[in-house]
Design a protein that fits this description.
The protein is mainly alpha-helical. It contains ten helices and two strands. The chain has a two-stranded antiparallel sheet.
């Protein structure tokens, strides 16, 4: 079966363009999210539904981001060109788009914010954007030098995870009707924290690989089933809670792991 599939791929060269096409769809989703976010300026009142739709578009881009790597392995089409293109697409979708979403949301409240407060918000959004750029640049350098991150882990918060954290906050605000002023004050700060975590040395486990391994591990399969059930029952609230747990829980676990390893070496 594998031999037939390999022969089919060799005969049909067009299949090798599938991974890059999926990566292009990822970047187009990011561009669409930015354009749709700009529609917030069309009305005088703040319509958080616009930002929620942009958040959903960014989340859809994550599907393409996951599929392009999968397709590259299946069609044996992995290349340095694909790696560079993937990072550029991620910069648009998981770097620029979420930062734009947060910045424009804050700017729509300019009638209730002082100019200095707006400047601080934009600077906080810049921290997020800079963190995403530095992380993706480091990933590219590792790819060029042939270095690999620890198996099953990322060094620092992955940019899709940071974007998911921003999007989940917007989605919860839209569904739970969180006061707009509270969201405008806390979301830029949260975005800046995410930017710092992206360039931090904390280890984050590879969620996609963990999901794949869950089908070979009964305990993990039960946990995965519980997570999916929680998202189905509680929807955006559960999704936001899980993302927040991933963002905050991994650094806490990593700190305790390092303390435990240090005590072991000293003893």
């Amino acid at each position: 079966m594998k031999a037939k599939f390999k022969k089919l791929v060799e005969q049909n060269r067009w299949l090798r363009y599938v991974p890059n096409s999926l990566t292009l769809c990822n970047s187009l989703c990011g561009f669409a999210a930015i354009l749709y976010t700009l529609r917030a300026y069309e009305g005088r009142d703040l319509d958080i539904g616009i930002f929620a739709i942009s958040a959903w578009v960014i989340l859809c881009a994550m599907v393409f981001d996951a599929l392009d790597g999968f397709a590259a392995r299946i069609f044996n089409a992995a290349s340095m060109h694909g790696v560079q293109m993937d990072s550029l697409a991620d910069m648009v979708t998981f770097g620029v788009a979420p930062a734009t979403l947060v910045a424009i949301f804050a700017h729509k409240l300019r009638g209730t914010l002082l100019p200095n407060q707006e400047l601080v918000i934009y600077l906080l959004c810049s921290v997020y954007l800079g963190g995403a750029a530095l992380r993706l640049a480091t990933y590219n350098v590792y790819a060029i030098q042939g270095k690999k991150e620890p198996s099953g882990y990322f060094s620092g918060l992955p940019s899709p995870g940071a974007a998911a954290a921003v999007c989940s906050l917007v989605m919860v605000a839209e569904s739970e009707r969180i006061p707009e002023m509270q969201l405008a004050l806390w979301m830029p700060i949260y975005a800046a924290v995410l930017g710092i975590l992206m360039v931090s040395p904390f280890r984050y486990f590879h969620f996609a690989r963990w999901v794949q391994s869950a089908f070979r591990n009964r305990k993990r399969l039960v946990i995965l089933f519980a997570l999916v059930t929680a998202v189905i029952l509680f929807r955006t609230a559960a999704f936001a809670a899980l993302i927040t747990l991933y963002v905050i829980g991994n650094p806490i676990y990593d700190i305790f792991r390092r303390i435990r390893e240090k005590k072991t070496l000293q003893s």
